[in-house]
Amino acid sequence: MSLWQFTNNLLPKETGTTSPLEETFDKFCRGVSMYGPFWDHVLGYYKASLEMPHKVFFLTYEEMKEKPREQLKRWADFLGCPFSEDEEEVDGGVNEILRLSSFDNLSKLDVNQNRKLSTGHENKSFF
């Protein structure tokens, strides 16, 4: 669904056309997309994360949604920048990073509401 909505957001508004959901679903299942076969892409990174866990950090959207604090701390550790005890406190940096990087906050920023990419596509298409 998100790929279908995103693709339709990128179509010129003045044409009034949309990509049929069934067609988008069929292409996705066959691995036909702008970025290549989705599952091959994900599986490649997953395998690389198992082979080189010190170089490839693998995180799913579902993991981040379920436990954002824990996943952010894992990411910081992976980058070699673990949070201090003060930063992990309720008023500390971890919660502030989660707030600043939330979809709710990012989607409301002026740059994402009123600006466009060099391609002419609106930044808000990504939210």
Automatic annotation (TrEMBL):
- Name used for this protein in its record: Sulfotransferase
Q: Name one Pfam family in it.
A: Sulfotransfer_1
Which InterPro entries would you find in this protein's record?
A: P-loop_NTPase (IPR027417), Sulfotransferase_dom (IPR000863)
The family note in this entry says: Belongs to the sulfotransferase 1 family.
What Gene3D superfamilies does this protein map onto?
Answer: P-loop containing nucleotide triphosphate hydrolases
Extract the GO molecular function terms from the UniProt entry: sulfotransferase activity
Domain Sulfotransferase residues, every copy:
2-127
Q: Known EC number(s)?
A: 2.8.2.-
Q: Mind listing the UniProt keywords for this protein, alphabetically?
A: Transferase
Repeat recorded as keyword? no
- What top-level branch of life does the organism fall under? Eukaryota
